[in-house]
Design brief:
The protein has helices at 8-22, 61-102, 105-118, 120-140, 149-155, 171-187, 193-206, 213-222, 232-244, 248-261, 268-278, 284-293, 305-333; strands at 33-38, 41-46, 52-54. By secondary structure, it is mainly alpha-helical.
């Protein structure tokens, strides 16, 4: 806000100062920035060049921005608590209805025991048939030993970057796209983030996949089971950032990709979240929104509710730490 009566020239000068100090990137000069607030400080985050530069914190506008940020955070937390309370109430109601409908657990056990006695002979016959069927299926299946270790290495398939491909409808297309990006990275080790992002987009489009699938393609092409030892997230952070461009929607899809990758190893999930947050690839707001939103349209079909709950449980200490850090930074800004 500019108070008082001013001439057009003065207003233009003030607008120019605002644009120069709070809109244009200090590194490349393009108006592709958005704010990143961390520990009571405001940073420019440029989607064009990836620069992260602190604004002039002595400017009085910074006080207003920090106050608005704190206000929005408080509103989001209150809304999240309300949503959580509603979900809990709904779950309790469903449990009560189910109990009324099916009777108590003791009654169910008695009924089950009685039924099992009455159908004992039928169960034995069914068991024999099932045993014969299993034996036949086992004979029909090809021996797993036919796949040699050499072939596994040649295919470059690992348990972390490729997971349950057959369960996804577009598995063949996305595997081809992942292979294409892996090949490019192997043959072009010095490729820039922009070049890699272009290859990822080309692979996504040529495979007729959705726009957000490019995040899945890139992540599953660059990460391996030894991602932590080899600092792969730190190494490839600029590539991921160039693909998401700081877009909150793409960052939500990025979390979805991590969920999918960590299905078999949930303990890796909070580690990846923390590393992506430290590298400023994932925003704090996006992570907290994911944590309290529950299952959404961003969640992959392959990630069922039980698996997602397990991943959310593993991430609980990190989410709590984020909230505590946010509260302390809010107090500092006051």
């Amino acid at each position: 806000m500019v108070n008082g009566s001013h001439s057009d020239g003065v207003l233009m000068e003030l607008v120019g100062k605002y644009i120069e100090g709070f809109v244009l990137c200090p590194e490349c000069g393009l108006p592709e920035t958005h704010y990143k607030i961390k520990e009571g400080c405001i940073f420019h985050r440029c989607a064009a060049c990836g620069a992260s530069v602190m604004v002039d914190m002595e400017h009085k506008l910074c006080t207003y921005i920090l106050a608005q940020h704190k206000k929005e955070k408080k509103m989001k937390k209150e809304q999240a608590k309300k949503d959580k309370g509603k979900a809990s109430e709904s779950k309790d109601k469903d449990a009560t209805k189910e109990k009324k409908k099916g009777g108590s657990d003791d009654e169910k056990k008695v009924k089950k025991k009685k039924k099992s006695k009455e159908t004992g002979d039928d169960a034995k016959k069914s068991s024999k048939k099932s045993s014969k069927k299993k034996k036949k299926d086992k004979e029909d299946k090809p021996a797993a030993a036919g796949i040699s270790d050499e072939k596994k290495l040649a295919d470059d398939v690992d348990e972390l970057s490729i997971n349950s491909e057959n369960e996804v409808n577009d598995a063949d297309a996305i595997v081809l796209a992942i292979t294409g990006v892996k090949t490019f990275l192997t043959t072009n080790p010095t490729a820039t983030p922009s070049q890699v992002a272009e290859v990822v987009v080309n692979q996504q489009m040529s495979s007729a996949l959705k726009s957000h699938d490019k995040v899945h393609i890139l992540l599953r092409a660059i990460l391996t089971p030894s991602f932590y030892k080899e600092n792969q997230i730190q190494k490839y952070a600029p590539y991921i950032q160039k693909t998401t461009l700081g877009n909150p929607i793409m960052e939500r899809h990025l979390i979805s990709a991590i969920e999918y990758i960590c299905l078999e190893k949930p303990k890796n999930f909070p580690v990846m979240l923390k590393q992506l947050y430290d590298e400023e690839v994932l925003e704090e707001e996006v992570i907290l929104t994911w944590a309290f939103d529950g299952r959404s349209t961003y969640t992959c079909e392959a990630v069922d509710e039980e698996s997602r709950s397990a991943l959310r449980g593993e991430a609980e200490p990190f989410i709590t730490w984020l909230q505590d850090e946010d509260d302390s930074s809010g107090e500092d800004s006051d």
